[in-house]
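Thread: Newbie trying to understand structure tokens

Hi all, I'm a second-year student working on a class project, and my supervisor (Dr. K.) asked me to get a predicted structure for one chain before our next meeting. I've only ever worked with sequences, so writing a 3D structure as a token string is new to me. If someone could post the tokens and maybe explain what I'm looking at, I'd be very grateful. Here's the chain:
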Amino acid sequence: MLDLDMGEYAAFVWPAWAVSALVLGALATRALLAARRWSAELKRLEAERPAED
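---
Reply by user tm_fold:
Sure, no problem. This is what the structure looks like when written as tokens:
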């Protein structure tokens, strides 16, 4: 099964996992927010563009 006992190294391993998870979460959030901004900018630019006949 899954052995989560880190013994004497737990004080170093668990915080490292926590920091890694926070950084990955922040990067994912940042990427999603940037994608939304890019999408909004694209819609704005397409709306500004004159219609082609």
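A couple of things are worth pointing out once you decode it. Residues 10-48 form the longest helix (39 residues). Residues 32 and 42 are 15 Å apart (CA to CA). Feel free to ask follow-ups in this thread.
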